[in-house]
Amino acid sequence: MKNLNVIAALLGGAAIGAALGILFAPEKGEDTRNKIAEILRKKGIKLNRSEMEDLVSEIATEIGEGAE
């Protein structure tokens, strides 16, 4: 069971790292949001602009809390 927790933590960290890489890449914000939306659409998740902004805010909050 402990090994599953470690694997889940590693996968979660990788997902957060990928999200951070996309969010802080040197591209325009609109381009980044479009890329994120396209990736989510391919996974079957559809978000409108407001939901996307909420998601970005939530990720930024999580990152800020993790840095403290």
Automatic annotation (TrEMBL):
The keyword Membrane applies. InterPro entries: YtxH. Keywords: Membrane, Transmembrane, Transmembrane helix. It comes from the Bacteria. The chain crosses the membrane at residues 6-25. This is YtxH-like protein. It comes from Bacteroides luti. The lineage of its organism: Bacteria, Pseudomonadati, Bacteroidota, Bacteroidia, Bacteroidales.
